[in-house]
## 1
Amino acid sequence: MPLAVDDYVTRVSGAPVIVDRPDPVVWSDLDDPEVRDFAERGYIQRDRALDDDRIDACLEELRRIGEDPAMADDPRIIRESGSEAVRSIFDVHLLSDVVWEAVERSGALDLAREILGSEVYVHQSRLNYKPGFAGGAFYWHSDFETWHAEDGMPRPRACSASIALTPNRTYNGPLMIMPGTQKYFVQCAGETPEDYYKESLVTTAPKVGVPSEEHITELYRSHGLDVLTGPAGSMTMFDCNALHASGGNITPMPRANVFIVFNSVENALTEPYAGTPRRPDFLARRH
C-alpha cells in the first residue's frame, strides 16, 4: 500500500506547485568531496569509467540486440516515432552479460551505494540511442515524478548512471540538467491515462508527467542549465529528482549511452500513486 501521507503529490487537477524536497539527496555522510558535489549540484561526472575495448564490446552487443530478428517485436525495443530507428533498448543489463560487466567495471554500483546509503538493485536499465539525423528529443522532466506516480517509488532514494559509448558533444543531443533542482519537487498537472507509457516512451512532446513551461522557466532563471558532454567511456551519475532533458540529434554523429537506474533496497516500490495499473517489469523492476 502507498504511504499514508504522500509527500510527493503530483498529477494534480489544479495548478501545480514547486515544493521543497523533504528527503535528503545523499543518504550517507558527506565526507567525500565528490559526493558533496552530488548533493549540491545533483550530478557528478567521471572520465574513463570504461576503456576502449569495453566500449567497443558494448556497442557490438547493442548492435546485435537491435538487429536480432527475434527481438524485432519485443516491447523492450522502442523505435523512433514513424521510423525503424532504435530510440531505446530496455533491460540491457539482462539482455547482455557484456553490458552488465561493463556497468560493474565502471564503478557505478559502488558510487550508487555511497550516495543512497544502502545496498541497491537495478530499477531500470536501457540504451538511449540517438542515431545521426534521426535522434529525437527527451523533454524536461524529473524521473522520480514518473517513477512515483506510475511505478509507486515512495521516495527519491534512487540515482541514475549514464555511461557514454560514443562522444557526447554539445551538438548531438547530450544530457542537459538544471543543477540544484534535485532539492525541489515539481508537481505536474493532468490525469494519467492507462498504459500512458506506450506514448510517453516515443513522443518528444509529452502531455503528462512534465513540468509547466512557467516552472521550467522559473527554475532555469534561478538555477541555470548545464550541458553534460564527455568522451566515450565517461560516466555521469545524477539524482532521480533533478530536472533534465536532451535535444534531438540532426548531426551525422550518433550518440549512444547505457543508462542504469539504481534504487535503494530500502525504497521498495508500492502501488502507483497515480492509481494506474503497474507498468511492465522492464520499466520498473521490484527487486
## 2
Amino acid sequence: MITIEHVSKTYKKGAWALLDVSVTLGKGMTGLLGPNGAGKTTLMRILAGLAAPTSGHVTVAGIPLTRPDEIRQMIGYLPQYFHIYPQMTGREYLDYVGVMKGMSDLKARRLDIARLLEMVNMQDKADKKVRTYSGGMKQRIGIAQSLMGSPEVLIVDEPTSGLDPRERVRFRNMLTRFSLKRTVLLSTHIVADIESNCRQVAVLNQGSLLMTGDLQDLQGCGQGYVWEAMLSAEQYHALDPSLVMSSRQQEGMMICRMISMHKPHPDALQVEPGLEEGYIALLRRERDE
C-alpha cells in the first residue's frame, strides 16, 4: 500500500508542480490520468525516491521515503523518458539492473532475465546492442528492467509510448497479471490505457487531485454534460469545435457528440457519457469553475 498525505512540490520561483495531494493506493492497478503538465511525472519521481516533496508525507508498505534504500528494493520504476547504455546488449543491461537491485545470485538473476525477455517478446533481440534497437524495443527493455526482482510496487510513467497496438495490448495484459497481488500505478494521458485494466483511477490537473474512485465514478463525472445531435454539414461547421468530442457521417448528416455545461444546439439531446467523456467533462468543469 502507498499512502500519500498532503504532498506538495514547488520549484524555483514558487511554481507549484503538486499542491496538497492525498491518496491511498492499495493492491491492484490504479490509473493516474491527467493532461501533459498535470504533475504526474513529478508525483511518480517522488514515489520512486528520485525527488523529495516540499511538504507532506509518503509511505510505501509503512516505510517512509526517508529510508530510500529500503524503498528502492520494493519498487520497480519505468520513467517516461528512458535511457539505456547503447554499447550494452539488452541482456547485459538487464543483468546490470539486477545487480544494482541487489540480486546477487547469478543463476537466479539469469533465470529472471530470461523470463522477462520472453514476457516482453525480446528474447530474439536480447544479445544485440541497444544502439540497434527501435524506440519500441527500447521501451520493452525498459518495461523488463522495471519488473526485475518482482517488486512489490510497480510505478510506470506513460509506458505504452512507442509501442505498436499489439504490443500495447500485450503490455496492458502483463500489467494486469502483475497487479493481482501487488500495487501498480500507471500514469497516462490516454484513457484507453486504463479503461479495461485499472481498478481505481486518480485524476491530476495543474498539480491538484481532482478525483479518486473507480472507473464508474470517472464516467459519472460526465453526467449532464454530454450531448448528441444529428446535424447538416452547415450546422456542423457552425458549431464551436472545442465542444465536439466525436463525429461521424451517416446518410449525408453528421452525428456529433458534444461536451457542454449548456445545451450546445437546439437539436441536441443529453446522452449517457463514456469513460473518456467523463474525464474530459471533469477537466472542462474544473477549467470553467
## 3
Amino acid sequence: MGRHVVGTVTEVQAGGRKIVQAEGRSIGVFNVNGTYYAMRNSCPHQGAPLCQGRVTGMTLTAPPGQYVYGRSGEIIRCPWHGWEFDILTGKSIYDPHKCLVRTYDVTVEQPAAAVAAVVCEPTIEAEETKIETYPITVEDGLIILHI
C-alpha cells in the first residue's frame, strides 16, 4: 500500500479540497466537517474531472409537501453532466449499488519531533567545534493518503 503526504490540515480547511497526483492517479482529498475523504478524480460517466465539481448537499426524504435539505458539503456534482456522488462513500446518488467512484483511506498524523543542529565556529579558547541542538516540532497534522 502506498503512503502519500497530501499536505497539512491547514492547507485543506473544512469544506475545502485538494487534488493531488499519486501513483499515476488524480485523486481529490476533501475535508468534510473535519474528517478527510479521498476519491478518484474521474466521473464514471465520461471521465470528467469529478473532484473539480461543485460540492453541495441534497434534498432528503420528507413528508409530502415538505422539502428538507441536508448533507451539506457531502455531495459532489460532476462539472460536465451533473451526476452526483457521495464524497463519504463514493456511491452515486441515483444508483448507489451499481455506480460508484473509487475511494481511498485518508489519515491525519502528527509528524515526529525533529532536532535541528547548529554548528558553531571554534573560538580561540577552544580548538573544537561545538554543535548545539534545538528541538523542533510541527504543530500541524499531516494528511496522509493511502493507496
## 4
Amino acid sequence: MSGFAKHRKSGRIIADFTGFEAELLRSLAGQLVELLHNETAEPRDDRDPLEAMLDFSGPTSEPEDPVLARLFPTAYPDDDEAAAEFRRFTEGALRDGKSRAAETIIDSLEEAGLPPELTEDGLHFDVELDEPEAMTWMRSFTDIRLALATRLGIEEGDEEYWASLPDEDPTLQAHDIYEWVGYLQETLVEALQR
C-alpha cells in the first residue's frame, strides 16, 4: 500500500490495495456501521422521508458505549437540559451520516474488486475516488481512528508506552492498525490538496 495519490490527468484520487488491506478496511468500516446501528438512536429506513425529517425523538442522554460517547460528545457539558435537547435534535442524523460514510468505504472497495468473501491470495486492485467520495472516506477514517483510540486507550504523548510493547502483543498489533488508518488518512488529505 503506497497510500492515496491524485491522478494527474483524471484528477481522481487513487490507491492500490491488497486483498488483505481492503478486507481489513471493510471490516473496520463494517464494525463501525454495526456499532452505530445497534443503538436506539439509529434512524429507521422504513419511514416516510418527511416524517423522518420532522422526527426529533432522538436520545437525550450520552451513549453508554465509550466509543459512541467519543463520537457524539456532549455539546453543553455545563448545561444538562441544553445538552439533552441538542442531542435529541442532532444525534440521529449524525449517526446516520457516519454510518453512510462507513458504508461508502465498503461500497467503494467492493465496486473496485473486493469480493464478498476474500479467498484469493495476492489480490491487488485500485480504488478510484472522486473528490466527494474522498472527503467521505476522510471523515470515516476520523471516526474509525477515534473508535480504535478509545478502545485501545490511546492518548496523546503515549508513544513510549506503545514502543515498549513486545511485537507479539495483540494490542500493539491493533495500535499498528490505528497507525495504518492514520497513514491512509494523511495521504488522502495530501492527495486532496494537490
